[in-house]
Design goal:
mainly alpha; 6% strand
Length: 529
């Protein structure tokens, strides 16, 4: 009975919202719940509520890592699914995914943001902004950008999802049916982003006129709109939207060039942009984190690929990290190409003498594997000229570096995919030159896809790329077969089982069982579950 009550409260998120005190748009535990009708009275209160909407982004990075990267051929989780929620995603465990906490929390957290955005969007027209330094339309545009981002995730993860663009009563929420994926794009995502692109400026301002580089900008809205149109142009929708994507992506690239923003000139600068002191400097839009209990980047402790490191290397408590493995074939490709990005994907590392316990520098290919662009450990910081953070990283919830949602390399490589030919080749070679690689002689879609895979590793794009190119089945069958035949022959039957699980219905996650059971017959479950 207790579980039923909890499930119903999650289902009703669309018709409720918490107003939270925030620091850098980070959600903290709400100390009170204030009725929307009594709360939205001034621009200052609207600004605080908008900060609360941004704050609900905090867990999203974990879902991109678990439900996109681990689901793709970039990574793998070796623990048994019955022991670990992440393994359900990585091992295509259809039965486990129905009640998987990550899948259920992803649904709930995205609708938490949508509910908060809806409340703000509905109430903002009633507030007098005559004494404010901005228009209320900018605040509406920021809220609509965030709402579009949530619906974009939901439609890509779950397919048919319920859509609400206004606050709902409890009765309305319990009778809100699913919309088809194309309807979600046409009714929610595209209108929201078009509005945001029209009403946002180069930087977001608050009601006092202060600049906020950490909030959504016009470039962010156009970048996300370009990504949306690219996703629609691919499988399974196959809409004629690539030209629209090309237009918006080009506008973002032109702005980046004219304003000298976002691009890192070389590998040294690229390495430094992942350090938290450079937050809000390089990414078009990023999730904000701070060095405080339960306010840090959740992907940082997940980016370790083994538990072999001593605490002195990783800082406190990180030996409780998880066993995620970067896909071996990708490692081989990067090593064969002498890709300098590999230096920061496979750590330069420490070795520990088993007899003396002494640690010395040096690359250890067996255990020193990290997604180092997210893992801000002391060796990396020292090599780049930054002080260590031993005094501030109390445990694994404290890592302060932001997570990129929109990055210029992602936008550039999508544009290269749109145009192909010599123009597309020039963009690919720009990213390769920055990484210290030899330029390619000719453009090919295969080369473009591999460049995206290497450049954006760990950032939550790979699964969505595989789906829109309709390679997700073969790519992941190949991954499991590679492990079976080359890495773990003693458990070959397990990898054969994993490979057999991957099929056309793997495109979407299931609607969480907790949602299916609240109002029997309202939702239709995705095929394969």
């Amino acid at each position: 009975m207790k579980m039923k009550i909890v499930n119903k409260s999650v289902f009703c998120i669309l018709c409720s919202v918490f107003f939270m005190s925030c620091d850098n748009f980070l959600t903290v535990e709400p100390t009170s719940q204030i009725g929307a009708d009594n709360y939205y009275q001034s621009p200052a209160e609207a600004d605080r509520a908008l900060s609360g909407v941004y704050g609900t982004l905090k867990p999203f990075a974990k879902y991109w890592f678990a439900m996109s990267e681990l689901r793709s051929d970039n990574m793998f989780e070796t623990k048994e699914a019955k022991q670990y929620d992440y393994a359900d995603c990585a091992q295509f465990n259809a039965t486990g995914l129905l009640s998987d906490n990550i899948v259920a929390n992803c649904w709930a957290d995205h609708y938490t943001l949508i509910a908060a955005a809806n409340a703000l969007i509905d109430k903002l027209p009633e507030i007098d902004f005559s004494t404010s330094k901005i228009t209320k339309e900018q605040y509406i545009a920021e809220a609509r950008f965030l709402r579009a981002l949530s619906y974009f995730d939901l439609v890509r993860f779950y397919g048919r999802v319920p859509v609400s663009l206004h606050q709902l009563s409890a009765d309305e929420a319990f009778h809100l049916a699913q919309s088809e994926p194309l309807e979600v794009y046409q009714q929610a995502i595209i209108p929201d982003l078009e509005y945001a692109a029209l009403h946002l400026g180069e930087y977001a301002l608050d009601y006092n006129g202060n600049t906020h580089s950490e909030r959504a900008s016009q470039a962010a809205a156009k970048a996300l709109l370009g990504k949306v149109y690219m996703q629609m142009a691919g499988f399974p929708l196959n809409q004629p939207t690539k030209d629209k994507a090309k237009t918006y992506l080009k506008e973002v690239l032109d702005y980046a060039e004219s304003s000298n923003r976002y691009w890192s000139a070389d590998m040294d600068e690229w390495n430094r942009m992942w350090i938290h002191e450079n937050d809000n400097k390089y990414y078009i839009f990023e999730i904000q984190y701070v060095c405080a209990a339960n306010q840090g980047n959740p992907v940082t402790p997940l980016s370790r690929t083994s538990n072999s490191k001593p605490d002195a290397y990783c800082n406190a408590y990180l030996t409780n990290g998880n066993h995620f493995y970067i896909e071996r074939a990708l490692q081989s490709r990067m090593m064969a190409d002498q890709d300098l990005r590999c230096h920061w994907t496979l750590d330069m590392g420490y070795k520990q003498d088993e007899e003396t316990g002494e640690t010395t520098g040096g690359y250890n290919p067996d255990v020193d594997h990290f997604l180092v662009k997210f893992f801000e450990h002391k060796t990396k910081r020292d090599s780049l000229g930054f002080s260590n953070m031993d005094a501030t990283i109390v445990n694994y919830t404290y890592w302060p570096q932001n997570f990129p949602v929109l990055r210029i390399e992602d936008i550039a490589l999508l544009y290269a995919e749109c145009v192909g030919g010599n123009e597309g080749l020039a963009i690919i070679n720009r990213t390769r030159q920055r990484a210290g690689l030899a330029p390619l002689a000719a453009y090919s879609e295969e080369a473009l896809i591999e460049e995206r895979r290497a450049e954006l590793l760990g950032e939550g794009h790979r699964w969505f790329d595989e789906v829109r190119h309709n390679t997700y089945v073969q790519d992941n069958k190949t991954k499991f077969e590679y492990y079976r035949d080359n890495c773990d022959k003693a458990h070959s039957s397990v990898y054969t089982m994993y490979a057999a699980r991957v099929n056309s219905t793997s495109m979407y996650y299931p609607i969480p069982l907790s949602q299916m059971q609240v109002c029997e017959g309202l939702y239709q479950q995705n095929p394969g579950y």
